[in-house]
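#onboarding

Welcome to the new folks! Below is a worked example of what a typical request in this channel looks like: someone posts a single protein sequence, and someone else replies with the predicted structure as tokens. Don't worry about understanding the tokens yet, we'll cover that in week two.

Example request:
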Amino acid sequence: MPTPWTVAVLGPGGIGGLLAALLSRAGHRVICVAGQDTASTLSRDGIRLRSGQFGDLTATVEAATELREPVDLCLVAVKHTTLGPALDRVPPGVLGDRALVVPLLNGVEHADALRERYGSDRVVPGVIRAESTRVAPGVIEHGTPFTEIDLAGPAERLAGLAGVLRAAGVSVRVREEEAAALWGKFVLLAPFALLTTRYGLPVGDVRTGHRDELAALVEEAAAVSRACGAPADPAAVMARYDAFPYGTKSSMQRDAEAGRPLELDAIGGALLRAAERHAVPVPVATRLVAEVAAAAA
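Example response:
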């Protein structure tokens, strides 16, 4: 195989833990950066992944509460609600000259903050499509039959990174335009997160019992996406929803069920702010954001 990479995973939760396990299985050195309790568990037990796509496996990883050595790649997979404190665990001066920083957060507004901290040349905006949940420290359940990542940037610059991820089992697409990459997921994510959280239902019940509302919300998100310079096809988004396993839940819905802080501002708030900047009417989104906020208060 090609020379193994050293990969830091900031936030080894549902998404970070999934990728950490896959990259370790592929032969790379993986350092998970997390709180003390999680780091101790991962150092002792590794990551146990249960996945219909990849099977069940236990992956050996290293773990630390702070990154202390250079890496080739740093995956940022924390929640928006904890991003600021989490970044303190990865000092910019430690990363090394070759390191790429790939944020895989929900939303469309975080890349600039990471560029300011780590430098524009290092940050590669990315999005991931997968339902993956941390059910206990180091125990990950991957529910979707797909794991897809879009990376934004020049294809020649990202060829090595894309190759590493593909060899680990991830479907990767490199897109030149950052807006197209970020909004390509966001048009799917925002309606999914808002409606599953508002009604406390999985996607199967939303796409049947609330289909008109879902379609209207997708149309609004697509209109905002187009105003931001990213193409969007509402019919294709609806088809993706119809292909999801019936019981699929959004991460924001799971956070609401567990009483955790919601990424409502990063998802719903970001949609409303973009709509306001471009004078795009979004009445359904406006109402749903208000209703979810009121329920969480």
